[in-house]
Amino acid sequence: MAAAARGAVAGFLGRWAPWAARCPAAGRALSGLSARRVGQVPAPAPAAAPLWRPRLSWGKLPGGDTPSVLSSVTSLLPSILQQPARTLTYCSLRNGKRKSVKAVVKRFLRLHNGLWVRRKAGYKKKLWKKSAAQRKRLRELVLCTRTQCKLLDKMTTSFWKRRNWYVDDPYQKYHDRTNLRV
User: Fold this and answer.
1) Any bridge partners for residue 109, and if so which?
2) pLDDT tens, position by position, 88-124
3) Residue 170 to residues 7, 42, 175: CA-CA distances in angstroms?
């Protein structure tokens, strides 16, 4: 049991020996062991083919950099470390202006009082299995919350925030806010 544990530790330290020799802080990173002592640990004899191989080669990368532990973990777990994106263009290539997110413009309506209106989720999906009352509820419009309104304002330009006067506008009575706190 002790021999197997010692062999596993020796194999682990032997794999990290080239990296430890190149990195000045590797001695501190590997429990205070010096690079010389790590290089002298004999690697165990392979009994069978390894079940797992590291994804990154531990030599030098094409750019001349040495791979870090963080980069190897990041390549294994991309879905956890990805941040949600709003795809907002701060500076366009053609004329250097901020651009609106087209998905916001298509899905939401901004009232002149600053509130945003949207449809309920799933109002077009699987209508054949929903009752008439549920379909009616889904067709209703919903006001967005304060944080959603702020985010949607950031994702659109001033062109979409100006007041428009349409003939027979169905939202005319909702554009001016009376006795309504946001």
Assistant:
1) 117
2) 888 889 999 999 999 999 999 999 999 999 999 999 9
3) 77, 80, 10
Neighbours of 17 (CB within 10 A): 20
Residue appearing with tokens 């094409």: 62
Strands 141-143 and 116-119, by their bridges, are antiparallel
Average pLDDT, the chain: 75
Handedness of CA 143, 146, 150, 155 (dihedral sign): negative
pTM: 0.52
Number of Cα atoms under 13 Å in the Cβ half of residue 122 = 8
Split at pLDDT 50, 70, 90, the class of 178 is confident
Query: DSSP letter string over 114-147?
Result: S-EEEEPTTTTS-GGGS-HHHHHHHHSEEE--HH
